[in-house]
Amino acid sequence: MEERNLTIADIAQELGVSKTTVSRAMSGKGRIGEETRKRVQAYIEAHHYSPNVVAKGLAQNKTFNLGLVLPGDYNIVELPFFQKCMMGISRTASEAGYDVLLSMVTAGRIRQLERAVTNRKIDGAILTRTLADDVPMRYLQENGVPFVAIGTTNDAGVVQIDNDHRGACRELTERLVDGGIRSLALIGGREEYIVTKTRLQGFEDAFEGRPGWNGSRQTFLNIEDEREVEKIVEGLLTERVECIICMDDFLCGCVLNVMQTRQIAVPEQIQVVSFYDSSMLANRTPAITSIRFNVEELGKKACGLLLQMLEGEEVQGRTLLGYEIRERESTKMISAASGIKRR
Amino acid sequence: MEERNLTIADIAQELGVSKTTVSRAMSGKGRIGEETRKRVQAYIEAHHYSPNVVAKGLAQNKTFNLGLVLPGDYNIVELPFFQKCMMGISRTASEAGYDVLLSMVTAGRIRQLERAVTNRKIDGAILTRTLADDVPMRYLQENGVPFVAIGTTNDAGVVQIDNDHRGACRELTERLVDGGIRSLALIGGREEYIVTKTRLQGFEDAFEGRPGWNGSRQTFLNIEDEREVEKIVEGLLTERVECIICMDDFLCGCVLNVMQTRQIAVPEQIQVVSFYDSSMLANRTPAITSIRFNVEELGKKACGLLLQMLEGEEVQGRTLLGYEIRERESTKMISAASGIKRR
DNA sequence: CTGAAAGCGCTTACAG
DNA sequence: CTGAAAGCGCTTACAG
Lengths: 343, 343
Fold this sequence. Notes:
2 copies of one chain form a homodimer. With 343 residues, chain A is α/β, with parallel strands linked by helices. Chain A contains 12 helices and 12 strands.
């Protein structure tokens, strides 16, 4: 097996042409005789030659690697969201002849990303979430590395793509309110994650157009811990709040837990909705009404945008992807309200 | 920002030495004057020079990339196990100056891996699970790519590392049996995954040393689907089986679900144990007794082994890592049985 | 201890 | 249409 790998020089010699010619036959750049090209290609096929991409990269100052920046926090990286992103990105990159290089970053510690960049191992990068104070993003900007951000950011200069969390949260809230809910609570994670703020906006949007609404609403942000959730939910139960909107499936799991322990019936005594429809909540009883995003598609498109940028194409700054609302047993009928299925 | 990157030639010229000398000052290879080395290093520090790893790699026929082979199946990649592996691997690789290149493979389709190999983008690879008919493994072997397998395989020639699933399943089963369980069932996933077989062996081992045991046991393998689980569990309930051992947390989630729907009390009416103690079961009520492996450590060690191999060191064929049994509310007291905590 | 030169496997002006 | 030569940014025998 360990035969020395074929090189372009070997082929050139074998065929009695120059390396230049072989190179051109493969790349299609530069003029070359149709017959010569065929000869070269036939030889390549027959001998299963494949070029050394590293050498090619050195000559062209490219690596054909994309950096995938993933949060390295313990509980975050387990979220199915990032896995699905990864799958979408990996597939798209692969189809375009690129490979994916992993960089895990944690709160302000971006050494892996720095290494990938200073070692010139990547041509561009994809951020898989956006932060209020985004150290990785700043680093990429300062070093002139092309990148796209999955998530939203105020900096209109950065190419970004996101699901419509704001619209989704607005519509979900509207449906609940229009369905007759008089009191509801929103529970979310760290405000440091921009997506948390975005969803909050959507929640508020829903009441913008309903000045006459005289119910009660409350919001709890920066909740990370099961015990915190417990406390909050206990409070909500004594206040007889009618519905809880959970910003992610981890939080929702905690909420459901409390219900189960206290033998509170969902949706009869309180309704619950969540945001991801992920495997974390799969198999739960009752099934949870939630937003559904096509996360793999998100990853694919993000990667597609980056590839375009690397080809030198102009790329529009912001892309927003749709959502669906999946109604299930954890809520009473709410679809009457609008029922629009976004593209 | 976009200043052309410093090269070794620039430094040589600036310092009035040869490129050879600069190279040696950095690598420490070859004789070089102490004073010269200091001058070079001072310059490098001052100007934040960092070498072009791709060029270095071309000259040395190395890439400083490790291939991480991940299952690309939809529901599999979401298992927290693979994320934790990934974290361990990524950290260890990074500390050693390597980067991690992703290759997702699905049932027999290994194009991403092939590309990484034929494009000469990786120096070695890590398989994150082992299969009965392991296409990626065979490919790596045939192409002479050094690799380590996370998981177990019969081929004693492959460097492999695994948690002691067999011992863990044996001890867990023993404890249950010695604790007085008279009838129990084992539910597992695809036999195609070697780990499924390994656990089954451990289960059987437990009865090996108890020829006098006159309870009943049954096993259900190749279960993947929630509905299948439902059917099985219904059967088990009517048979009044006392305990169910689930081979993974997805299956366990399904089992718990049935219990919840049917209002069966765990552990009073039936006991349940699982195998991963992952976030998939976190926040469940009751808390589930399960095996606990240190998966990040597993990833780290696997990566460490591969790095050793790449350094040309001899590496022992098999490594087995310990486990703990975490007893929780889903079982009645079983720890009396042995209580050994493995290293 | 140091350097000139060849080499890693490609690409790409430039010249014909 | 084709090729000789220089170059990408390193390393490494070889010679001194």
